[in-house]
Amino acid sequence: MACDCSASSAYSINTKDEKTKSWKKLVNVAVSGAAGMISNHLLFKLASGEVFGQDQPIALKLLGSERSIQALEGVAMELEDSLYPLLREVSIGIDPYVVFEDAEWALLIGAKPRGPGMERSALLDINGQIFAEQGKALNAVASRNVKVIVVGNPCNTNALICLKNAPNIPAKNFHALTRLDENRAKCQLALKAGVFYDKVSNMTIWGNHSTTQVPDFLNAKINGRPVKEVIKDTKWLEEEFTKTVQKRGGVLIQKWGRSSAASTAVSIVDAIRSLVNPTPEGDWFSTGVYTTGNPYGISEDIVFSMPCRSKGDGDYELVKDVAMDDFLWERIKKSEAELLAEKRCVAHLTGEGNAFCDLPGDTMLPGEM
Amino acid sequence: MACDCSASSAYSINTKDEKTKSWKKLVNVAVSGAAGMISNHLLFKLASGEVFGQDQPIALKLLGSERSIQALEGVAMELEDSLYPLLREVSIGIDPYVVFEDAEWALLIGAKPRGPGMERSALLDINGQIFAEQGKALNAVASRNVKVIVVGNPCNTNALICLKNAPNIPAKNFHALTRLDENRAKCQLALKAGVFYDKVSNMTIWGNHSTTQVPDFLNAKINGRPVKEVIKDTKWLEEEFTKTVQKRGGVLIQKWGRSSAASTAVSIVDAIRSLVNPTPEGDWFSTGVYTTGNPYGISEDIVFSMPCRSKGDGDYELVKDVAMDDFLWERIKKSEAELLAEKRCVAHLTGEGNAFCDLPGDTMLPGEM
Fold it and tell me: What would the pLDDT profile of B174-197 be if each residue is shown by its tens digit?
């Protein structure tokens, strides 16, 4: 019976001989879509200590489906065979009300892939239902301060659905992953300017994780100087740069025949590390967050990617002193309009009445089926 | 034309603005089978600094095939998008004489998988030819002190073929990967004893990476005490333990539908780290090495997994003071006999005359096609 597999503990080791270690309290990390390729990269990074630190023991709580439960057992075996000293527990299951229990982090990767010819609205509905259910489960059983990172697409609106279904968890705790977009944007600026990656800072992705996303070259810096002072090719910045960032996943799937699981996993690591480590002085990072009280004039009550800073306590604050010009603002408004339309599409899942779907065109990022 | 892709530099960044950093000299790491799943995990670990250290810049030189060159371009793109500050260069190609140039490490993962019904002898011949060619290429163009880790199966005999075709590189520099076997053995002992993984030490895998491999519970320790003092279940140790270790890959492929790419990559990381970091006092690690001058009485001139220690300089020495009993020795002799038979099978590839193949049964590890 399917229920029998639910949260079966694949591996749990007696900790009685470890009392003398001055390690931190165990952190519970739940991951959905745990049998998929993104997770297959991510779980080993979580277990190795590169995300939460080399003194942070971790329990992994893996959510799969009936179809994937055997694969999850295989993943748990491979994690065992990797002998990670920080990995204290791996549990697997198919019931989010069990798997999310006491979760302090929930990394929501699992989502239905878009089938051939499927409209974005249909995908919003199918995946929205998954995230509504997972929001309810988090609300019922997770840590009251659980941090949630939504990766499954369309991730902004999925995050909105999730937080609306989890009223007892602060809306501020929900994130939609736009870090891969940020990383790709930094990469393109570094390549264009001929500098190392780490010379590019203050990179914002504004808006939706879709083709309306806005990589912000007005505020980004290279070697501490405005991008426009370093890259004089304005035509490239205005016409090519954003397209290149957006098409990256599509080019990759053409060449590689797979979606970008490894670099997505790296960007999830980056997103978490940005919340558990203090942001370097003067810099910021991008994450899709709930827009309540935002200083930019973006509509309230959606999930929108914006520039943020963290003290390293898992929380963040919005960066307030960013410049705006017409070119940037017009694009931000377009992404905002799309998110408002997506929100109307899923009103039945957020408890806001009947859905009305008038999505403008197909704005799924290429390579994200 | 295929040749045009050979070692095309997918990405190389100007280093002139980095002269002030006190980082070490760039290390050149070549990886074959770079478009495969093991590499897909390994390359990101190499680039992140977790293998060679956070102060060690790295150049990755990726060897693929005509068929996989596009996929390799995709891998290079994902590595770019990950913004690893230590990753200074990624080059890709299909000619080992170009890709292996100046390589200081060569991680030879690529090999033909065994087709249905294929005999081990046929696999030895097909893959042996690949490793003969790669040995010649290393001999011609790699660093004179290149360290070579052979992962592609049958890895012990492939390593022997490789080193025989690279007479100008010290035979001591060639390794066959038995670290995944060691990790799996440690995991099983930890689970049986109910202790953490890192309480198991001094684990040797003797012999061939095949079903004749010998996980050594006579010398292994748990919490510093002999395994036999901690695990009183001798029947389990003698009859179940070894089988469980050997069948692990097979069980995994049954459950997960894939071979153990992630944990294999972790074990390659462990194998390299064991050579570039000093071995902890009193402990050792297993690696398949050339048997010349071994103190155990194992036949000379084969590649055999044995207990080794390192000063952290990339080199190793054999551990000499290990205990032996009849049970252990008999099993070691059986694995030795198999490796001698494999050697006779590939005499045409090692320059030792005509091959004569009398392999005893099928000893491929389950899950390794």
Answer: 999 999 999 999 999 999 999 999
Chain A residue with the nearest C-alpha to that of B18? A196
Contact B250, B367 (CB under 8 A): yes
Go through the domains of chain A in sequence order and give each one's CATH number. 25-176 (3.40.50.720), 179-349 (3.90.110.10)
CA-based torsion, B60, B61, B67, B73: positive or negative: positive
Q: Is the pLDDT of residue A50 over 50?
A: yes
Q: Of A77, A80, A196, which has the smallest distance from its Cβ to B13's Cβ?
A: A196
Q: Residue A6's pLDDT band (boundaries 50, 70, 90)?
A: very low
Q: In angstroms, what separates the C-alpha of B75 from chain A's closest C-alpha?
A: 7
Instruction: Mark whether B209 is an active-site residue.
Output: yes
pLDDT of B249 reads 87
Q: Which residues of B are annotated as a binding site?
A: 114, 120, 127, 151-153, 184
Query: Please, how many CA atoms are within 13 Å of residue A130, restricted to the half-sphere of its CB?
Result: 26
H or E stretch covering B248: helix B242-256
Closest-CA distance of chain B to residue A209, Å: 16
Give the rounded percent of residues in chain A with a pLDDT score beyond 70: 93
Mutation target among A62, A82, A273 for the B interface, most CBs of B within 10 A: A82
- Nearest neighbour of A85 by CB, restricted to B78, B85, B197: B197
Cβ burial of B320 (10 Å; 0-12, 13-18, 19+) is exposed
